[in-house]
Amino acid sequence: MTATEARRSESTQAPSPVLTFEDVVLGFEGVTALNDVSFTVNPGELFAVIGPNGAGKTSIFNVLSGVYRPQRGTVRFGGEDLLGRRPHAIARLGIARTFQNIELFSNLTVLDNLMLGRHHHHPYGVLAAFAWLGKAQRNERANRRAVEEIVDFLELAQWRRLPVGLLPYGVQKRVELGRALASEPKLLLLDEPVAGMNLEETEDMARFILDIRDELGLPMVMVEHDMGLVMDLADRIMVIDFGKPIRTGTPKEVATDPDVIRAYLGEEHKVDRS
Predict the structure, then answer these.
(1) CA–CA separation, 45 and 36 (whole Å)
(2) Whose CB has fewer CB within 10 Å in the chain, the N or C terminal residue?
(3) Residues in domain ABC transporter (predicted)?
(4) Domain map of the chain by residue range?
(5) Mean pLDDT of all residues in 228-244
């Protein structure tokens, strides 16, 4: 057994998951987006969710973020029930998210965009900020040190004072990842982190995702269409189709599952079980 396989085996046996998503049902005016979806995420694990377009992947993220409230099910994070909480309250619990479409302030610099990720770490009011004394000054300096660490971690130093709107697309995606990290999350949600990237940008992002897992020990849930990336990076994968899970397992288990192959390739590619 290789070191990677050993780590994946250990992660699947983790006794106390950081996230429990259980029997979740979500529907909109008669259309079922999620149908009894269940999964767990273990400490330090990279858990991927894959499926055809419209399968319900983004709906899972929207439930986790508090954008959608399901009709049935349980979602618990670190012992806290997430259902019924507003997005900002869930973010304060330690869940950060990136978006498929870049959601940055294009006229602000890289540093300023990263500082926005620190908004939960400003325990003072407007008057203290204007006065720039005592606690406000110390906290601002601490936040800037934290942001500079992210700049170094994601190799953004050469662009740190440039407006993000002037940066290449792949670098902008990296800045968005950095903004999520700036909040010091306990769980990171990655919504198609390499969407629209060229090969070089994809390889860079894959390296940073691995660094986040292996060096920071941060558990992640990733939705991604790049199957090569998913198979290379994920510890476990859940495949959903039409809002219902059809397989959860290691990359090898998922890649050889006939139901998964049919969901992606169609009935004419049915696998011979004999």
Answers:
(1) 22
(2) C
(3) 19-267
(4) 1-94+185-274, 106-182
(5) 93
From the CB of residue 146, how many other CB atoms can be counted at a distance below 10 Å? 18
User: Does the structural domain 1-94+185-274 have CATH classification 1.10.8.60?
Assistant: no
d(CA 118, CA 102): 18
- For the sheet with 95-97, list strands across it: 95-97, 187-191, 220-223, 46-50, 236-241, 244-249
Record the pTM: 0.84
User: Interior CA angle at 57 toward 56 and 58, to 5°?
Assistant: 95
**Alpha-carbon span 68 to 84, nearest angstrom:** 9
Is residue 128 predicted with pLDDT exceeding 70?
A: no
Q: Please report the beta strands in 18-162, taking only residues with DSSP state E, as ranges in sequence order.
A: 19-28, 31-41, 46-50, 72-77, 80-81, 95-97
Predicted confidence at residue 274, as pLDDT, reads: 36
Query: Using CA atoms, how far apart are residues 138 and 159, in angstroms rounded to an integer?
Result: 26
Secondary structure (3-state) at 154: coil
